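for the writeup, i need someone to sanity check this before i put it in the appendix. the sequnce is what the collaborator sent (i think, or maybe the updated version? ugh). structure was predicted straight from it, no edits. if anything looks off just tell me and ill rerun, i have time this weekend
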Amino acid sequence: MSFDMLNRLVTRAFFFGAFLLLLLGVLDRIAEVFGATLPLLGRYTPGRLLEFSAILLIFVIALLLRQIREELKKRG
């Protein structure tokens, strides 16, 4: 497995993980409006899940910028 393939795999995994955390945070916030909570989240609040999602997206952006830089090096 090449580094480029691994990079793409990690980027996709982080992106979908961030999207899942965002979705769970939104669902938990909606559940709180109705007086319930999602028991699988434990002690994490919706805001904390949003923070984790943003951290993963920062890594995704960094990995995508690295891919762009490598492509520009190949062409130039």
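Residues 31 and 37 are 5 Å apart (CA to CA). The radius of gyration is 17 Å.
thx in advance!!
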